[in-house]
Structures are given as C-alpha cells and as structure tokens.
Amino acid sequence: MHYTRVPNESSTTRKIRISMKVAGAVTIVIIWANYCLKHSKMIKTANTFMLMNTKMVYTNEINKSWKKYSVFYILVFLHLILNAGNLYTSYLSYQERFDIRMLTNVFDFVICLHILQYAIILGIIRIKFEELRLKLSELSNDYGIERYVTFVTVKKNNTTLLKVSTIRQGYAVLLDVCDDVSKFYGSSILFSLTYAFGVTVYYSYYALTHSMISAEKSWIDTIDAILPLISVVIAVTAICILANNVTDQMLKFPDVINKLLDVRFFQREIKTELEIFSYQVSHKKIMFQACSLFSIDCGLLRSVSNNNYPILH
C-alpha cells in the first residue's frame, strides 16, 4: 500500500512538504558549517567562561535554582524520547522499511536538538547571572546592622572591595560570553527557528487533517502526526522562556547596586567600583540576536511586531 505523508494530499500540500524537506536540509547544512567555521572560537569562549567560573563560589540559593530548572531538564529528556519515538513510528508507518521521506524526521530531530542546546546554554548563563546578583545582595545584607567597631569595618571594606571587583569582572565576562554565543549561534538559530515555526504550522495541519478527514486511521499514524508537533513546540518554548529569563536577571542588577551605594560605611574605593559597575550595567545591554536582524530575546514577538531589532552595544 502506498503511504502518503498527508491524507488526501493535494499538489499544494505536496509542494509544501517537499519545501519543508529542502528547508530542513539547508538548515542542517548551515548548522554543520557554523560548527566547522566557528569551532575554535567556541572553544576559546568556553575556556573563558570556565576560567571565570572557577573564581566564583556557588551559593545554596544557586543549588535551588538548578532544582527549579529540573522540570526543564526533564522536558529535554522527554524531548529526546519523543523524537526517538517519532522516528520509530515513522518507520512503522512506512511499512517497517527505510524510506527517504523519513529524513524529514531526522532533520526535525537534529534541528530541535540544536535549539535545545542553545536553550541549555542560556539556562547556564541565566544561573551565572543570578549567582552574581545573589553574591552582590549578600554584601548589602552584611552591612544591614550598623554596629561596627572601626577596625572591623575597615577589614570588611577591604574584603568587600575585592568581592565587588570580582563580581563586576565576572559580569563583564558574562556579557562578552553572551555576545560571543549570540554570534556563534546567530545564523544557525535564525534558520532553525524559522524552520521550527514552519513545521509547527505544517504538523498542526497534518494532525488536524488526519484526525478530522482521514478515513484510514490507526494509532501509529495518529502518534506519528502528534509527536513531531510536540517536540518542536517544546524546543521553541524552552528557548523563548530561557532567553527572557536571562534578560530578567540582568534587569535586577541596578536595584542591588543602588542599595549598596546607600551603605554609608563603604570606603570611597568601593563607591567608585560600584559606580563603575552601575555604569557598566546601564550602558551595556545584551539582546540575544541572530545576524543582528532577528532578536530571540523573548521580546521575540515584540521585536517582530514593532520592527525593533536591538543589538549589543
């Protein structure tokens, strides 16, 4: 029996299906070329991040942050299972033999995995920003009680100056890492997201057509219609949420810095360091972007609707 990917497939839907395969193949090539051309720079950026990471000590609050994101990592694992199940059901749908049309499922798997990889990197960056913010907040809490003997205050000021300087430098490194990551993944994520939005529409149509129109229904075909849609939605949702969370963490820094500037026991050197930090936070914004054309900060929809394409400056 001849199996068609879409029940009662018309010439138009057939052209759309073939176009999606071509788009998937082009996206895969771009992802592969992106890794090959930027591999050495990626390693350098990763080493820079790890070097900065060794200077910072995790707090108990950060461990709680990882627990909060445990649901996300479970979704990543489930996403891999969904894609594996999707490949298997496609194999069954094509009468338990390899069919060139199964390449569409392979393309979906690789592209969704690429999007999730970027989402995980955003999650790590988000947690590092939160760690720096919490460490900065701890400094203001240390000076909450204004009962200090002079020599104790001087000693604490020296320690505080070192901590503020380290946190500020760590923040600057994270901004550079964000900039590099945005450039590394810019073109490939642009094509991956465009492809993902396209297949979301396509699979939604396929699922509705199969459930409402198709006369020959089976549980295998039903699963084969729904699994790809779920996996793509999970990947796109993850990257939008985590990109937005990174921006939210950065927006919390000014309030913490202003609170520290109000501490009257700080030496002039600490005040100066905090003022530099405040200037750095207010004048160097990070917006995750693709080729400086398409923002994937979760101003994603706002950027598209308002034709606003912010860049790192």
> What is the straight-line distance between the termini?
59 Å
What's the main sheet like? 2 strands, antiparallel
Kindly report the average pLDDT value.
Answer: 69
Strand content: under 5%
Widest sheet: strand ordering: 1-2
Question: Considering DSSP H and I runs of 4 or more, what fraction of the residues is helical?
Answer: over 70%
> Helix count?
9
> Spans with pLDDT under 50 lasting ≥5 residues?
1-7, 57-62, 145-152, 289-313
The rough form would be described as: elongated
The tally of strands reads 2
How would you sum up this structure in a few lines?
Helix 1 runs antiparallel to helix 5 and helix 2 runs antiparallel to helix 4. Helix content is 78%, strand content 1%.
Furnish the topology, listing elements before pairings.
Layout: H1 11-54, H2 60-68, H3 70-93, H4 103-142, H5 150-212, H6 219-251, H7 253-261, H8 268-283, E1 289-290, E2 294-295, H9 300-306
Antiparallel strand pairs: 1-2
Helix pairs in contact: 1-4, 1-5, 2-4, 3-4, 3-6, 4-5, 4-6, 4-7, 5-6, 5-8, 7-8
Can you give a write-up of this model?
The protein has 313 residues and is mostly helical. The chain is built from 9 helices and 2 strands; from the N terminus they run H-H-H-H-H-H-H-H-E-E-H. It has a two-stranded antiparallel ribbon. It is elongated and about 75 Å long.
Relevant terms:
mainly alpha, 9 helices, about 325 residues, two-stranded antiparallel ribbon, about 80% helix, disordered C terminus, disordered N terminus
